[in-house]
Structures are given as structure tokens and as C-alpha cells.
Amino acid sequence: MQHHYHQLLQQQKQYFHNGHTKEVTFRIRQLKNLKKALQQNEKAIMKALRQDLNKSEFEAYLTEVGFLYKEINEAIKNVKNWSKPHKVKTTLTHMGAKGVIYPEPYGVSLIISPWNYPVNLTIAPLIGAISAGCCAIVKPSEQTPHTSHALTQIINNTFDPEYIVAVEGAVQTSEALLELNFDHIFFTGSEAVGKIVMEKAAQHLTPVTLELGGKSPTVVHHDAQLDMAAKRLAWGKWTNAGQTCVAPDYLIVHQQVKAPLLKALVHHIQALYGTNVLENEDYPMIVNDQHVERLSHYLGEGDIYYGGEMDKEKRVIGPTIIENVSWDSSVMRDEIFGPILPVFVYEHEQDVIEMIRKRPHPLALYLFTESDSMVQYINSQFQFGGGCVNDVLYHLGTSQLPFGGVGSSGMGAYHGKHSFDAFTHHKSLLHQSTKFDIPLRYGQMKAALNILKKLIK
Ligand code: NAD
Predict the structure, then answer these.
(1) Does the chain have fewer CB atoms within 10 Å around its N or its C terminus?
(2) Are residues 165 and 294 in the same domain?
(3) pLDDT band for position 273 (50/70/90)?
């Protein structure tokens, strides 16, 4: 296995050095090929997502395939511009010289993806790699075997393996790939595996982009538009049955509005997912039995306010709200990554700060309020990857906003131009003039030091 991957990597390095991928026309052609391949295989993708996660076609289009078409269209339209070298101003000490930044592909990238949005999280980084002019070896998740198999076939039927290749496999495959000397690694997954990836990358000083997870809080202030907050929360928390890296992990609501908010939340849960969720044919299932076990354990760690229904055989757990949960319980230590929402209340804004600071920098933070000062206050208190005011999840769909974490929720960002940047080294070159040679730097003029002090102070 190791030898085979080593050979693949060497072939890709050779292909990269031949310079094919540096042509913008080549990149655009490959982006178009990718879009066509996705379109032609859309039915197979939808079927695989149904088999692995019971994703409905609507949800799959909104959060996976449709999202990718948008990203590809944007890349096709802008890649020429993104990849152009651009001049920058130089200072007076560099008179006559010209500074130029050359966006250059890293080379051969390794892309490792998780199971929760298996199509999106495999192909969106690949769009960045193609746009930037990288070659890539792609390893989708073993936890969604139908989707990963379909993706592997699509990728391998579309691209020459010397350029882009997908390999199926589990941890061992990942481990074997991580031994190799890639030029860049783009990893999406858990914090624990993110640490392994970074450690392996350090052996070769390979730059990494790490898209990780964590516990993303949602705060609802007393002045929020409660019905709208509840509706958006009901949608964002239980999309993909809560198996979303930026899903609202837990809720902190002002004590004055807890009762009406939860009442509205239940109303919207029922409107979106039905009163008998176990019979809802479009409600996503939990990815595997191990995660069903993990999540069912959390149900015992608080009082169930709503939900709690479960069909272990079908791997379905209904939208569940729990209260009276301890911060020391596993549901508040782990990233929940499932359909359970613990609720906490606060009286003073300082309480919110104390609660959120109990956990590392989140990947996302959501705040519902009509007050600008509350937004300013909360925003100034924490580092977090990104988020929304008066919404959840929606920042992901705005490709102008870089998507990524900070600290234990990740490093680096992507989407839109940021995906291009994630796979790009911005090489800088100073083009010096030979028409004259300003003597200042040599220190041989009498007044050199005085001039220098005047220029730089
Ligand atoms: P994971 O870390 O278990 O697996 C991700 C990938 O790493 C898989 O392809 C897997 O085969 C590989 N892998 C697993 N163990 C490995 C090991 N020991 N060594 C090398 N490779 C290994 O993550 P997951 O369970 O697939 O996904 C869930 C996690 O991903 C959550 O923490 C979630 O928040 C995070 N996530 C983050 C984002 C984001 O964009 N920031 C998106 C989706 C999911």
C-alpha cells in the first residue's frame, strides 16, 4: 500500500513539475470537467447519500451538490484574476524597485475528508486545489462507504491519476498517506485526528489546513425576535440530524425568554420534522451504531424537555432538547455532533462569557439579538472561527466569508477565493532596478545614518 501511494505521489510531483497545472486554461477546463462529472452523476450521489445518511434530495442539494456548483462557478469565473501576479507598492528605501506577488500552487496536496457532508467536504477543497493549480490525492471517509465509493469513481473517471486521484480506505490508508512528503495537507475532521495530521506533517514541515470541530454555542438574548430565532435554530441544529461541524452545540438563553423560546422551538421542530420523527422518511440517520450508542448515553445526562425518541435499528434519534445538564458531563465536554441540544440560562451578560470561556475557541458562535451593543460585546469577548448574528449555519454559504476555525477548531480557511488561497503560496519577488544604485544602504556616505534615521523612524 505504502509503495503504491509513494509511486502515485512521485508521478503527481513529476506531473506538477511539467507545469501543466499552472496554465489557467487547464484549470478552468478541469473545473468544468468536475462540474460536468458531478452533474452527470448527481443521481448516483443522491442515492449514495440516502444509503449512508438518509439525506433527502432537498437537503443533499442545498448542503452538498448545489453548494459545490456555486463554488465551481465562482472559481471558473475568477480563477484567471485570482492567479494573476500583482504589483505592490514599495517604500522610499526601495526607490526604483518593483514588488510583485506571484500566487503559486503548493504542489501536490493531500485531501482527507470526514463523513458528515461527504460530498461537499471532499469536493470543495478539491475545487480549491484545482483552482490554485495543485495536483491532489483525495481520501474520503470510510464511514460513508456508498458515497465515498461513488466519489472515488467520479474523481478517477474524470481525472488522470497523475493529476488527481481518489483512494478509498480507512485509518490505515490515511496513516500510510500521512507518512509521505506532500506539499500541502488539507484535513477536515476531528480535533483528535487533526493533532495526528499536524504531527505527521511536521516531519516534512508540510503546511496544513485543518478544518476541525468543537462546541459551537448559540446565545439568545432577551430582545431577540424569538419566533424567527426558534425557526432558524430548529433548521440549523437538526439539519443532517445535528451531524454538522457548525451545528449549534448548546443553547444559552436569557432566563426571561427561556419559556417562550423553547415553546417556539418545539413548534418549529414539529413543523420541520413532524410530530412523529421516527416515521419521517426524510429525517437523516446517525452515521453508525457507535455514534448512536454515544448519543443515547447523552440523553441520560439531563432532563428531557422535548424529544428523546430513538430507533436504534434504524439509527434514528429525534430532535431532543435537554436541560439541567452539568458542565462536567460528557455531553458538555464532547462535541455533541448529533440531534441533542442542551439548554442553559443566563441572567447577566457576564454569565454568558463565563460559560463560553469554559470551552476552547469554538468553530462557530451564534447570537440572536436586536441590540448592536450586545453584538459588539459578545463579539469582542471571544475568538471563534466564524458565525452569524440572528442566524445559524448561513455564514457557510457566503463564499466571500472565509470559513475555518481558530485554535482547537482549526487553522486556515476556505470557500470562494479563500479556497484558492488555501492551496496557494504567495511568492514575493522584488524586481530591482539596474539603472541606478542608491548608495544609502552601503553606509559609505557621511550623512548616511542621518538620512536613514529620517527615512525610518
Ligand atoms: P475523523 O477525524 O474521525 O475522520 C476524518 C478523516 O480522518 C477520515 O477520512 C478518517 O479516515 C481519517 N482518520 C480517522 N482516524 C485517523 C487516524 N488515526 N489517523 C489518520 N487518519 C484518520 O472525523 P469524522 O468523524 O469523520 O468527522 C467528524 C469531525 O469532523 C467532527 O469533529 C466535526 O466537527 C469535524 N468536521 C469539521 C468540519 C469543518 O469544516 N471544520 C466539517 C465537518 C466535520
Answers:
(1) C
(2) no
(3) very high
Which strands, in side-by-side order, build the sheet including 135-139?
A: 164-166, 135-139, 108-112, 184-188, 208-211, 410-411
At 132, the pLDDT band (50, 70, 90 cuts) reads very high
Q: Which residue has the cell 425518541?
A: 309
Residue 256 within any structural domain of the chain? yes
Q: Which residue minimizes the CA distance to atom 30 of ligand 1? A: 189
Nearest CA to ligand 1 atom 14: 171
Both 115 and 229 in one domain: the answer is no
What is the extent of the structural domain holding 296? 217-404
Considering the domain architecture, whether residues 366 and 419 belong to the same structural domain is answered as no
Q: Going along 89-183, which residue ranges are E strands?
A: 98-105, 108-112, 135-139, 164-166
Whether 457 is in a domain gets the answer: no
Q: How confident is the model at residue 455 (pLDDT cuts 50, 70, 90)?
A: confident
304, 322 Cβ separation under 8 angstroms = yes
Domain count for the chain, please give it.
2
Same domain, 328 and 234: yes
Closest C-alpha to 170, from 419, 294, 1: 1
Tell me the three cell numbers of residue 390. 440572528
Indicate whether 323 and 345 sit together in one domain. Answer: yes
pLDDT mean over 55-83: 97
Asked if the structure places residue 117 within a domain, the reply is yes
DSSP 318: -
Per the confidence metrics, is the pTM higher than 0.85?
A: yes
- The whole-number pLDDT of residue 92 equals 83
pLDDT of residue 93: 84
Query: Ligand 1 pocket: which residues have CB below 6 Å?
Result: 112-116, 121, 139, 141-143, 170-171, 174-175, 178, 188-190, 193, 196, 211-213, 245, 335, 337, 363, 405, 410
Q: Are residues 15 and 100 in the same domain?
A: yes
d(CA 186, CA 423): 8
Question: Are residues 278 and 177 both part of a single domain?
Answer: no
Q: Looking at the structure, do residues 424 and 364 belong to the same domain, yes or no?
A: no
